[in-house]
Amino acid sequence: PDGHGTRSRLVEVVRNKPAMLSIWGYTFHAWELLGMWAWLPAFLAAAAIASGTAGTQAVSLGAALTAITYLVAAVGSVLGGSLSDRWGRTSVTLLMSVASLACSFSFGWMIGLPMFMLMAVAVFYNVTGVADSSIHSTTLTELMDPRYLGAAYSLRSLLGFGAGAISPWVFGLVLDWAHAGNSLPDHVMWGLAWSTLGLGGLLGPVV
Questions:
Q1: How far apart (Å, rounded) are the C-alpha atoms in residues 86 and 83?
Q2: Rounded CA gap, 55 and 41, in Å?
Q3: DSSP E strands: which ranges in the chain?
Q4: Rounded CA separation 202/199 (Å)
Q5: Is the distance from CB of 187 to CB of 111 less than 8 angstroms?
Q6: Element spanning 63, H or E
Q7: Mind listing the pLDDT tens digit for each residue in 82-126?
Q8: Which of 35, 46, 84, 114 is the most exposed place for a label (fewest CB within 10 A)?
Q9: Residue 1 confidence class, pLDDT cut points 50, 70, 90
Q10: Distance between CA atoms of residues 44 and 207, nearest Å
Q11: Which of 26, 37, 35, 33 is nearest to 174 (CA)?
């Protein structure tokens, strides 16, 4: 197209405020989602142990249950994108992100509940957590000049997956800190750790 390559591509992306808000929204979404995906197997294994399942069996059960939630999460991506076509990008993004944030702030405190209840919440968490992925992708194509879309997606990937690499580490730091004194009950340790995903994800609805 005319004008292609005449200016710095990244500068054009950064100067586009709506597109940058979309990119930041995706970044905070990735903080929550990728942190959840990283820690869900360990959490469900710990929950299985708390419910009386033996160690190695608990690990297998946690992995199997997590795999089920990942498969069901595919529904969330289709659901989010479809609803956003009907009700609008911003409205559905806010709805799904607030729902997943509610899970981030409450999920860890639920350890000790029956496994079927934890699974129901984990499925809902996965569905709502991934539902705005497709919306963020579509939104960026609508807000960015097509000449600079590649640069926009590269910046989005850098920030989003960067946040997704850091959040599981922060989660683990908090879990280790809470475990160090051997005085906090399991639901407090896990509750604080899961809340780190919610704290980062809170900025998503803001932007």
A1: 5
A2: 13
A3: none
A4: 5
A5: yes
A6: helix 55-87
A7: 999 999 999 999 999 999 999 999 999 999 899 999 999 999 999
A8: 114
A9: low
A10: 32
A11: 35
DSSP string, 93-148: HHHHHHHHHHHHHHSGGGBTB-HHHHHHHHHHHHHHHHHTHHHHHHHHHHHS-GGG
Rounded to two decimals, the pTM is 0.91
**Which secondary structure element, helix H or strand E, spans residue 175, and what is its range?**
helix 149-180
HSE, CB side, 13 Å, CA atoms: give it for residue 136.
Answer: 28
> Buried (b) or exposed (e) across 137-175, using 16+ Cβ within 10 A?
ebbbeebbbebbbebbbebbeebbeebbeebbebbbebb
Which of 54, 172, 46, 179 lies closest to 115, judged by CA?
46
Helices (H) and strands (E) in the chain, counts: 9, 0
CA–CA gap between residue 123 and residue 26 (Å, rounded): 21
